[in-house]
Structure formats: structure tokens, C-alpha cells
Design a protein that fits this description.
One of its GO terms (molecular function) is oxidoreductase activity. The chain has 258 residues and is an alpha/beta fold. It contains eight helices and six strands. Helix 1 packs parallel to helix 8.
Amino acid sequence: MNVLWVFAHPEPRSLSGALRDDGLRTLRELGHDVRESDLYAMKWNPVVDAADFGAEAGDERLVVGATSARAHARGELSPDIVAEQEKLTWADAVVVQFPLWWYGLPAILKGWFDRVFVKGFGYGIRAEDGRTLRYGEGPLAGKRAMVVLTAGAREPAMGPRGVNGALDEVLFPLHHGTLFYAGMSVLPPVAVYGADRLPDNEFAEARDRLRERLRAMETTDPIPFRPQNGGDYDEDLVLRPDRAPGITGLGAHLTWTR
């Protein structure tokens, strides 16, 4: 299997860096081909601007979606974007690793998605019958994705009644709104809690847990999000009344809430 590891942490000697190094070594020992995007080491530019789109930008008002789609179709995206898209095209699975900062991604990683998942590559594809291919379908369908994250909070505080909110809900924008939106099958995340004060024995447990998840990456059942075009949603993309009746919120978009 071809695996792309996207890493977003500014310190390679951190706990996150140690997990990344062990994870890459584990994948290679398992016989997988691995490529890496170490965003801080690459000095990745996270800011979308007209320079991303080459000749397409010109002096006209920048409409990011339409302009990026034309630049992608004409091969005029900037070389750093093209290089990351080539890695994604090559990959069968993507590991996205980051520390959870302010309930979300580090800016450099958010900017990686903003610049790489342009219209025509990450979204904006239509089927022959006119359906928009997203939420379970689309250009990255068939690929697997798994988030590996560190959080300063202890695990109970990110549980169902924890003050920080349940982790699956905190990650919903990334899991459902980005990875699944682009068609990828999203595996349950690997989370390391209390990461800024983790004793050696708990680090060893986290390392072993990550190793086990990497060994099972090809067979682990993905999070059962409802596909947009599977019949669960009406023409306004609202759940039909007989799907998850009485349930609202993010959990309604999982197939086990029938």
C-alpha cells in the first residue's frame, strides 16, 4: 500500500515527532511504500493567493473556486501545489498528524488543505447524470485517511460530557467536511491525550496503539458517515424524515443512527 504521511508540528524532537518517526518506520517494516509531507520542514506556504494560479490569476478579481478549477485543468497551478497533489494521487492511504490547537488544525495544515484540495481536484466533480460527487464520492474516493493527533486535555475532558467536547464532534469538520467530502474513507482517529505531560509508560502505550492501528489500516472499518447520494437525503440535502427520526446534530449523519 502507498501511504502519504502529512505531518504538522514545528518541533521534530517533540512527542509528535517521535510518534511520526516510529509510525513511518512501522509502515516500512510492514512493506508499505511511504512518502511524507513535513509541512514545517518544507516551510509550506499556507496562504491562498493569486500566485497559486499562475496565468489564470491576471488582474481580474480573484474568485478562488472558479480560478483554481481553471488553473488545475490547464496545468497552471503553482509547483508546490502540484507536487502535493501528485503525492495524494499516488497514495492509497493518508495519515494526517497534528497537535490539536484551539479546537482545530494548526494554520499550516489548514492551509495545506486550502491550497491543495482545489476545485477540480478535491471537490467540484460531477457525474454524467449531473450529481455532485461529494460526501463519500468524488475524486479521492477509494483512498483511506486516518488522523493522528495529540491533545493537551486529558481523555475524560474530551469525552461525551467533557468540557472540551467529544473528540468525534471536534473532528467532524475535518473527518466529514474535508476528508469524507472529498470521497475518502475515514478511519477512527488515534488520539494521545495529556500530551504535554505524558510519562514514559504512557508514551510507550500510545506508540504501541499507533503501531497496531497502522498494522490494521487496510482492514479497519471506516466511520460510517452517510453518503450524500445514497438515498438518505432529500433534494435539499436534508435527512429524510424516516432516517434517524428525532435525532439532530452531527450524530444524525452516521448510518448507525437509523
